[in-house]
Inverse folding.
């Protein structure tokens, strides 16, 4: 009897346990297929030998039961240019991956493409294969690649051709008395913090109206299209006479940084024309400690602090230029002039402004004061020259006198679209036919003929 009393509860417990196990197996996994956030993960465009940004794929289980993925396989395995990471683990093959009911899983993809030694783009493809409940699914991987010329702390000179992009890491240096020419249609891409540095040499960017030379970051994914501060910029350090014509310089820290002037250069450090300088985290053009800049047909806009900043003295002569403070952080003016600066050695350095001409130009933005002056004359030892003629200026307190002639004050220039950053003026703009022929430039920033007798103010001539 004692044995029966002991055995019967044991049998009941065993049967109860067996029933529980049987019930669990019946409800453990869904037999449905997976759902994905996209059917193709596309990278467009990636420079060969340079790693891409990370793309994200979401794997969904939309059922009320967990799902077991028998395998996740990168089809080309270790030979693939793609790399995948599933739920924090890198690899090419994953087994028995469970997604809880009504949940999802992250899969991350990167790509690095090898050089193809041709100038045309290439396409690389692979697939991620999913096996779930005997059902096979896949997500396509595709990348457009492009070979490029690469520079990493290299001395550069001669001619940069336009057959494939130029990519700068750290510094590409044009050294003393050397010269670099960049052909029309060339594309220059700079990595984080990188710069094209001209040290007592010459730079000549030779774009055309049809084939601009473009400077931008080396991340070409759509997310980076309007991201500021992706690289430093173009730095002219006591340069010989340099030129920039028909360029687009965008998304850096200081688009163009001019520091001083070469002792043997009696003319302008930089002559820049028909160029857009836009979307930099600090300044469009930064002229520091004696640089000399001449500009024609410039559209300088949406920079983080100033469109143009002169610090510790220097010279400038701008005609048919648009200095626009849209996009500035805080209430910064478009044009800021400060002829002194206290350096790290504790001394305050004061420089003259020997030339300060702005003519037939637009100085405008959100704030009421779009010109900022902070100057010292050091008891008359330092000279400050400035002249504004036939401009449209936003400045709450209108200025007059011999240094301010024929200017339009505090009227909207009536741009086509601030939201789209289209800073062409409308036919109804007060800038139309309001320029001075004494400062006439025969063509506008797009190469359109400009009326001589009554040119339009700004970089664009209304057709």
């Amino acid at each position: 009897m004692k044995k029966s009393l002991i055995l019967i509860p044991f049998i009941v417990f065993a049967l109860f346990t067996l029933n529980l196990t049987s019930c669990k197996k019946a409800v453990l996994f869904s037999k449905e297929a997976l759902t994905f956030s996209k059917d193709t993960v596309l990278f467009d465009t990636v420079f060969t030998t340079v790693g891409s940004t990370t793309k994200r794929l979401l794997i969904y289980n939309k059922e009320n039961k967990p799902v077991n993925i028998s395998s996740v396989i990168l089809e080309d395995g270790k030979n693939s240019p793609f790399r995948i990471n599933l739920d924090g683990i890198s690899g090419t093959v994953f087994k028995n991956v469970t997604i809880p009911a009504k949940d999802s899983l992250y899969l991350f993809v990167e790509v690095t493409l090898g050089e193809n030694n041709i100038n045309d783009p290439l396409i690389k493809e692979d697939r991620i294969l999913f096996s779930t409940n005997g059902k096979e699914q896949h997500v396509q991987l595709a990348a457009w690649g492009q070979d490029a010329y690469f520079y990493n702390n290299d001395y550069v000179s001669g001619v940069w051709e336009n057959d494939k992009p130029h990519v700068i890491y750290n510094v590409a240096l044009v050294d003393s008395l050397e010269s670099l020419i960049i052909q029309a249609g060339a594309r220059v891409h700079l990595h984080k913090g990188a710069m094209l540095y001209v040290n007592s040499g010459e730079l000549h960017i030779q774009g055309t109206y049809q084939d601009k030379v473009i400077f931008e970051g080396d991340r070409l994914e759509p997310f980076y299209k309007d991201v500021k501060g992706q690289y430093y910029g173009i730095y002219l350090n006591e340069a010989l006479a340099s030129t920039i014509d028909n360029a687009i310089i965008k998304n850096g820290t200081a688009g163009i940084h001019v520091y001083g002037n070469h002792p043997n250069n009696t003319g302008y450090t930089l002559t820049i024309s028909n160029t857009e300088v836009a979307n930099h985290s600090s300044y469009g053009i930064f002229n520091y400690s004696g640089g000399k800049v001449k500009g024609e047909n410039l559209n300088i806009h949406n920079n983080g602090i100033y469109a143009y900043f002169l610090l510790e003295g220097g010279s400038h002569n701008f005609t048919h230029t648009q200095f626009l403070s849209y996009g500035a952080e805080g209430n910064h003016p478009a044009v800021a002039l400060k002829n002194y600066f206290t350096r790290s050695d504790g001394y305050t350095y004061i420089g003259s402004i020997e030339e300060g001409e702005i003519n037939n130009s637009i100085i405008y933005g959100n704030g009421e004061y779009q010109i900022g002056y902070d100057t010292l004359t050091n008891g008359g030892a330092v000279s400050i020259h400035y002249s504004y003629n036939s401009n449209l200026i936003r400045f709450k307190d209108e200025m007059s006198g011999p240094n301010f002639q024929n200017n339009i004050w505090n009227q909207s220039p009536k741009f086509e679209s601030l939201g789209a950053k289209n800073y062409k003026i409308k036919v109804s703009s007060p800038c139309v036919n309001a320029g001075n022929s004494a400062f006439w430039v025969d063509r506008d920033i797009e190469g359109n003929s400009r009326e001589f007798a009554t040119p339009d103010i700004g970089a664009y001539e209304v057709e």
